[in-house]
Design brief:
The chain crosses the membrane at residues 7-26, 38-57, 131-149, 155-177, 198-219, 231-248, 260-277, 283-305. The protein has one domain (2-305): Growth Hormone, Chain: A (Up-down Bundle), CATH 1.20.1250. 82% of the residues lie in helices and 0% in strands. It contains 14 helices and no strands. The longest helix has 33 residues, at 90-122.
């Protein structure tokens, strides 16, 4: 039962991302923002995630709580996201973006903690729970593209808000585990940073994931500018996640044969190939191939780091 509840959470969480990641830049462009402003806004999301998520996770560790904090974070994120409907100027959008992504992003690592607890104690398969997030990402990206075609970009806001409300409902059904409270009043991250293999893993994974930034921020805008339809753009986003699903489906088999370190190396090598292709051509078959490599550039790096 717990794996099913977590799978539902992943499904709802990544459905929201399946709308925001491909289409949020179009919504920002529709607000009259230029490329520099859009880049600044989208860059603020990983920045606040890197700072806010560890701090919120530390609060959760000290209280031994996960589910109640996830519920509060998701409710707060939904409320903050609703504010986007009432603002149009650059700096208000920046402020609300920082608030929203700090709350929204911080809940997912806590859910991962619940998931790993279920994996260790109930023998559940991590990949099979996580893959439902990939499935709904595909459905949201492809479906969102078809829904957006010929309609106002404001539909992106309403689809995302609806997804957040569904996510909040799934949070209510998360497992009610109580973890031992962490009595350490210091900063646990400082202890981890003294472990050299962890530091190298962190650097490698961060570099690989950050290499996706331009694609996440501007690929949709670029593809739209060269004449790709919203539905085709949704398919381009979705087909890379199909490869990710396959990897997560067979994650146990993969990890039995390939070490986490080698998975990160494979992800880096795939990234060199993928970004080289996407940097030099808009030829559609080449883009389809490059997007399939997302299963390695993101999926293998994520699996290796986890």
């Amino acid at each position: 039962m717990n794996p099913t509840r977590l799978a539902l959470y992943y499904a709802a969480y990544f459905a929201v991302i399946g709308i925001l990641m491909p289409f949020w830049p179009i919504w920002l462009e529709g607000k009259g923002l230029d490329a520099v402003e859009i880049g600044f806004i989208l860059a603020s999301a990983p920045f606040v995630r890197a700072i806010g998520s560890p701090l919120i996770a530390q609060v959760a560790d000290r209280r031994g709580l996960r589910r109640p904090i996830i519920i509060v974070l998701t409710a707060s994120a939904t409320i903050s996201f609703a504010i986007f409907n009432y603002i149009d100027d650059f700096w208000p959008i920046v402020i609300v973006t920082i608030l929203f992504f700090m709350l929204f992003s911080a809940s997912q690592p806590l859910a991962e903690s619940l998931t790993m607890h279920v994996v260790r104690n109930e023998g559940a398969n991590y990949g099979r729970m996580r893959l439902w997030g990939s499935v709904t990402f595909i459905l949201a990206a492809v479906g969102g593209g078809y829904i957006l075609e010929g309609r106002s970009v404001n539909i992106i806001f309403y689809l995302s808000l609806f997804g957040l409300l569904i996510l909040f409902v799934t949070c209510m059904f998360l497992p009610k585990f109580r973890f031992p409270a962490d009595a350490d009043k210091g900063f646990p991250i400082l202890k981890l940073l003294k472990i050299k293999p962890f530091v190298w893993m962190l650097i490698a994974a961060a570099l690989i994931q950050s290499s996706h930034a331009v694609v996440y921020s501007f690929s949709t805008i670029h593809w739209k500018s060269i004449g790709f339809s919203e539905s085709l753009i949704g398919i381009l986003w979705a087909e890379g996640v199909v490869a990710e699903i396959i990897l997560f489906q067979y994650s146990s088999l993969v990890l039995n044969r390939i070490s986490p370190t080698m998975l990160i190396v494979i992800a880096a090598a795939a990234g060199i190939i993928r970004w080289s292709i996407m940097g030099y051509t808009d030829f559609l078959p080449a883009l389809f191939f490059a997007q399939v490599l997302h299963g390695l550039t993101f999926g293998a790096a994520h699996l290796g780091a986890i």
